[in-house]
Design goal:
alpha+beta, 2 domains, 5 helices
Length: about 180
């Protein structure tokens, strides 16, 4: 084998290892399975008071990551009807589920997104500004399946882009808080 072929093989091997490492880090390494004790109860924001309140749920599964505030995803079931929830809790119109890793198979962002677009699923404000600029959004299907994820809100959109926070946003935390 010539030195050129050895160098080319070395480049391919390095590229393969780097590609696998990047894939592993994005899909597996930074996610942890979390429990209700770790993340708190499933909550929706009450229309009347504007504050989050826990709802009934079971079969809770969730993942989260310390590397990003928008990597949270959860799945659960609730016996509460969509009609009752709509009367009591704040409905969101602009919810867009974020894709979860394929191994977290209870959360299918495409299915949830299509159900939201068709009106089959209903999205609710879970907890506004769970961390600055990030809301926890909850979607409920007609069969009682529920899903939640974190979504950047208008405060976060502006501040994360380097602009001042719009009026009505909480104070921007200092770096490191």
């Amino acid at each position: 084998m010539t030195p050129i072929r050895i160098a080319i093989l070395g480049l391919f091997a390095t590229a393969f290892v780097a590609g696998f490492a990047i894939y592993y880090l994005q899909v597996y390494a930074y996610y942890d399975e979390v429990t209700v004790e770790d993340v708190g109860e499933v909550q929706l924001t009450l229309v009347e008071f504007g504050t989050p309140a826990p709802i009934l749920f079971e079969n809770f599964k969730a993942i989260d990551s310390n590397s990003s505030p928008i990597r949270f995803r959860s799945c659960f079931e609730t016996p509460l009807s969509q009609d009752m929830l709509q009367e009591t809790y704040e409905v969101l119109e602009d919810a867009a589920p974020l894709v979860a890793p394929s191994w977290f198979d209870c959360f299918d962002a495409r299915e949830i997104g299509e159900a939201l677009e068709s009106g089959e699923a209903i999205a609710f404000m879970g907890v506004e500004n769970i961390t600055f600029g990030i809301d926890r959004v909850v979607a409920i299907m007609p069969d009682g399946r529920g899903f939640s994820w974190h979504q950047i809100n208008i405060c976060g959109e502006n501040v994360f882009d380097g602009n001042p926070a719009p009026e009505g946003c909480p104070p921007v935390p200092e770096r490191g808080e």
